[in-house]
């Protein structure tokens, strides 16, 4: 992680990660049979803050290594995820946010379902780490049984606390 700024109301950071897992992912090789393969994940994330505006995002790539030869034509061993969000503190107690998330899935080619969602949120802080929120999330893909796509538009109201 690298931090920068800290002067004249501007600051930020840039981070990266690499993960290599040996025999950490299971892939199907037959009816009720799976095989362990290696998993490589890497990514970058960063944020920049100027005054009361905070922008941040991340990109993550996944790749499975050592797939059995019989899966080569029917299995996508790569996946990516991307997110970007902007938060703006409008008063000392009110935060407005906009967010975009995208997932390009891997796995069996016939079962792959990507996801794209847009979210708008308003938070009212009663005190530090304790807030009410109103969130609207819109699914930009088709509605399906996939957990990332099983809604078209979702509105949520709730209480959030963090300790």
What can you tell me about this protein's structure?
By secondary structure, this protein is mainly β. The protein has no helices and 11 strands. The strands form 2 sheets. A 9-stranded antiparallel β-sheet has the order 1-2-3-4-6-7-9-10-11, with no helix packed on it. Strands 5-8 form a two-stranded antiparallel sheet. Strand 3 and strand 4 form a beta hairpin. The chain starts with a strand and ends with a strand. 2% of the residues are buried.
Topology of this structure?
Blueprint: E1 2-7, E2 10-30, E3 33-50, E4 53-65, E5 75-76, E6 78-89, E7 94-104, E8 107-108, E9 115-127, E10 130-139, E11 153-161
Antiparallel strand pairs: 1-2, 2-3, 3-4, 4-6, 5-8, 6-7, 7-9, 9-10, 10-11
Features:
163 residues; mainly beta; nine-stranded antiparallel sheet; 0% helix; 72% strand
Task: Please summarize what this structure is.
This protein has 163 residues and is mainly β.
Tell me the number of strands.
11
Task: Give the number of helices.
Answer: 0
Helix content: under 10%
Radius of gyration: 20 Å
Q: Provide the succession of SSEs.
A: EEEEEEEEEEE
Average predicted confidence as pLDDT = 91
Low-pLDDT residue spans: none
